[in-house]
Amino acid sequence: MTLDYFYGQAGELFSFFRIPKALFQEQRFQDLSTDAKTLYGILLDRMSLSVKNEWFDKKGRVFIIFTIEDVKRTLRCADNKATKLLRELEKFSLIERKRRGLGKQSLVYVKNFSAESSKSIFQNRDFHDSGGFKNASQDPSKSRCNETEENDPFYSEEADGMSKRTQLEEYFSQSLEVDLLLRLCPDDEDTIYQIMDLLVDTCATKRKTLRIAGDDKPAEVVRSRFMKLNADHIRFVLKCLAENSSPIRNMKQYLLASLYNAPTTMQLSYQNQTNHDLAMWR
């Protein structure tokens, strides 16, 4: 393939991703990988679209929606690489991800890399007139919707019953030893948080029955069983998920069934493995 030269101002006709020089010149970013720096520039570019669409939270902070699939598609990389790059940017405090529950895309806050706050740059131009910020939809396909803060799922933290959800989140965070799980299974971070959200959503539901593996079971029975899960059960579910080679059509139902049956199937699985190992030594 033969490429032509640039002549005159021709080089300015194209659009570019801008990566801050500070990421390459400042000491604090010297251990940040080049791929992560590139991704940060891409996220900065996406943030300008969020400003245009008025994607602000109620504190006036700009957010974007950029999933692992978006990273994979943009950088032409595998799932593990995409997850690693996002985690790397989080480690350097260049982004912050806010998870919103099962089935909802996480919000990504691109953090200001410079020492000076640029908060005023991204404020809504109508702030001084209205006394507040406009809030757009969190769904990219529904930008500039007219939902109120009370109806927006992003503000569910102010909804009734949030204290119960908070208590459940704290309970599962401790009983499942989430911090330990994240250290032991770093590549399963998103799945671990999905499981956490699913457990909280299920235990917080007001429904009388829940469908597990095709059967309707009393919600109290399901809740009681989930409250007894521990980190070993979650690692077993992650192991089964990794070993499953069949396509999963409904991930929520698959996880519900796996979590509900984990205490029983884990014991049977380990017993079967032990029997197999003993037989091999005879």
Describe the structure.
The protein has 282 residues and is mainly alpha-helical. The chain contains eleven helices and four strands; from the N terminus they run H-H-H-H-E-E-H-H-H-H-E-E-H-H-H. The longest helix is centred in the C-terminal third of the chain and has 31 residues, at 251-281. The chain starts with 21 loop residues before the first helix and ends with a helix. The model is unreliable at 115-122, 124-138 and 140-162 (pLDDT under 50).
Spell out the blueprint of helices and strands.
Elements: H1 22-25, H2 34-52, H3 68-75, H4 79-91, E1 95-98, E2 107-110, H5 127-130, H6 162-175, H7 178-184, H8 189-204, E3 209-212, E4 215-218, H9 219-226, H10 231-243, H11 251-281
Antiparallel strand pairs: 1-2, 3-4
Helix pairs in contact: 2-4, 3-4, 6-8, 10-11
How many helices in DSSP terms?
A: 11
Query: What's the arrangement of strands in the largest beta sheet?
Result: 1-2
What is the distance, rounded to the nearest whole angstrom, between the alpha carbons of the first and last residues? 64 Å
Overall residue-averaged pLDDT value: 78
Give me some keywords for this one:
elongated, two-stranded antiparallel ribbon, mainly alpha, 282 residues
Short description:
The chain is built from eleven helices and four strands; from the N terminus they run ααααββααααββααα. With 282 residues, the chain is mainly alpha-helical.
